[in-house]
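Sample intake sheet
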Amino acid sequence: MTKQEISEIKKLMTPKNCSFTRICGCYVDGEKNIKAQFKQPFLALPEEEMFKYFEIFRKSMSGTLGKNLLTLEFPLEQELEGGSHGLLMALRDSKLKDDALLETYYNHIINDYEFVGNYLILVVHDVYDVPGKSTDGTEMEDASDEIYEYILTCICPVELSKPGLSYDAEENMFHNRTRDWVVSLPDAAFLFPAFNDRSADIHSTLYYTKDAENLKQSFVDCLLGCPLPLSAGLQKETFQSIVEETLAEDCDIEIIKNIHEKLTEMTQQQKEIPDLVVLDKEEVKTILADSGVSNEKLERFDTHYRAVAGEDTDLVMNNVMNVKTFEVKTPDVVIKVNPERTDLVETRTINGRRCLVIELSGDVEVNGIHVRTNTDEDEEE
């Protein structure tokens, strides 16, 4: 799913646009026991409760694509009879009115979800009449020819509120506040089916995780059966290792500057493309070649890539390097440079020592104090 498609679904999570038909919930304690269940038409909820649920649902579709928002595809075997895909399809088609199906679904989540503490499983069903769009992107409410029916599942921690004092207006006094169990924003969630090309894609799902570095591999494997990509942090580490292994003793600041500039250029070129830009092995190799890596080093690239990442591992371009920063770090010094002015940084040998040289231009501050950068002695030298 693209940012625009996610935003379109999030717009439904408001009182004005809401078309949710039914909401169901299952409260689970830390021992994996079901403590309570509920189900009812969503629009029958009090308005105050609706707003709380909207906040939860919107959060489950918030974050960064490729990091904590991932479009996952179902393998063919999961779409065969008995696979996880069939349960999700049946649940959606039942419009959450089949109690036995819901019970089975809850138990699947409870068995597979590893969490210390209490949590609430929320499932909501919706039927969205997708408006058509003109060539300039304007929505045409009376030109709909697509129905998008989906379910959204959120798993929310339930935690005791913090202790404190509260004000009693009747007594005009402050008392110890009663602690109660409060539903937090989602720890994990997924939308099924995904909304790709503004249409239902039953072969994929949009998955959300609060912690982008903990994708909950076991949970996704068991409940959805969809393969997960490397986390954003692991993709960055993988790319760094590939560069270091390929360049070996030739891995210097100038080459890294070139790679940074190449990725920055590609980011600007792809700015208007709604989809994530994914790099495969050959595209990573091309980036290194265009950055000045020698042919001799590139001859060993395939071996290094396969050893570090695996033959078929792809990397999201925005994950492998942050083009908005350029940082030089030693055990004792950290220098951050405007990524558009990496030309100010160079390496030079001075008095037999390898040094990092930074041109001082414009105003210079040290600990917030303006300092002089040119002296008569400098000019004489």
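Comment: Residues 25 and 188 are 15 Å apart (CA to CA). The radius of gyration is 27 Å.
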